[in-house]
Specification:
With 271 residues, this protein is α/β, with parallel strands linked by helices. The chain is built from seven helices and 22 strands. Helix 3 crosses helix 6.
């Protein structure tokens, strides 16, 4: 199999996750005190993909934060306008240089017995592949499956994508499905799209059994099954919540299923 290029999609506005994404791009929102972008880069490193020759990260919304964070760890692709999942691959055509492309959403969260290498195993380089999550009792987006955050594009498919706004669903996945050349690889474990406060909180709570508290956080209140970020100060009581780095919980406050990010407090209702 030819050398593979990997692209982490990190350009989106994260509108469903506002107001959190007025402070940080979605890809830099922390899950378990690690940014979603770093989690994505870590997943790629597990399958042998790392560094600016193999991995690219795209940026647009609050792109300067993405650029500062990426540094020299990956190739940076800055978009003047949002190009969507397909346009972002097309925009990187020169860097891709005729290789197949592994595309990973930065906001993809995986938990449990997840073996992402299964997406690459015994691949013929011709058929399009994606990770899929099966849901019992209902049909999915693609047969019995919903898309689970990562797809593998043959070199010819990637090379044909225009550097103009467009999405992989319409320009790659559905055509491959219609042609019978789409393979959905079943994901073992859990996938979450961390694009909403509910799913974002859920992902954070999956990272803890009791609580995860940064070493330099100051905590004098009671904390139960929560994630407390670096430099946070927690004087009140926090339960099943996320307190972002540098955020403050005042004495007497009682937070339950809340995301506290700077001056913003996002209440997440139970299902």
């Amino acid at each position: 199999m030819a050398e593979i290029a990997a692209i982490v999609l990190a350009a989106g506005e994260g509108s469903r996750l506002r107001p959190l994404t007025t402070l940080r791009p979605k890809a830099l929102c922390p899950v378990g005190n690690v940014s979603m972008l770093d989690r994505a880069l870590g997943l790629l490193a597990e399958v042998g993909l790392s560094g600016p020759q193999q991995v690219a990260v795209n940026a647009c919304w609050l792109g300067e934060q993405i650029a500062d964070h990426v540094g020299g760890h990956a190739h940076l692709s800055v978009e003047k306008e949002l190009l969507g999942s397909a346009g972002s691959v097309g925009h990187l055509r020169d860097w891709v240089a005729g290789r197949p492309v592994l595309v990973l959403n930065a906001d993809a969260y995986f938990s449990g017995d997840v073996a992402l290498a299964a997406l690459l195993e015994e691949w013929d380089g011709v058929r399009l592949r994606m990770l899929g999550q099966r849901h019992v009792g209902r049909a999915g987006e693609f047969g019995a499956f919903d898309f689970a955050g990562m797809s593998l594009l043959p070199a010819a498919t990637a090379a044909a994508l225009p550097a103009a706004p467009g999405d992989l669903v319409r320009l790659a996945w559905r055509p491959a499905e219609a042609a019978g050349t789409l393979d959905v690889i079943s994901l073992h474990g859990l996938y979450l799209d961390c694009g909403t406060p509910r799913s974002y909180l859920h992902a954070n709570l999956l990272e803890v059994e009791e609580s995860l508290i940064a070493t330099d956080a100051v905590v004098t209140g009671r904390v139960r099954r929560s994630v407390i970020g670096e430099g946070a100060v927690v004087r009140g009581d926090v339960s099943e919540s996320v307190v972002w780095p540098g955020s403050y919980v005042a004495e007497g406050e009682q937070l339950s299923r809340v995301i506290r990010a700077g001056e913003f407090t996002v209440q997440v209702a139970t299902a």
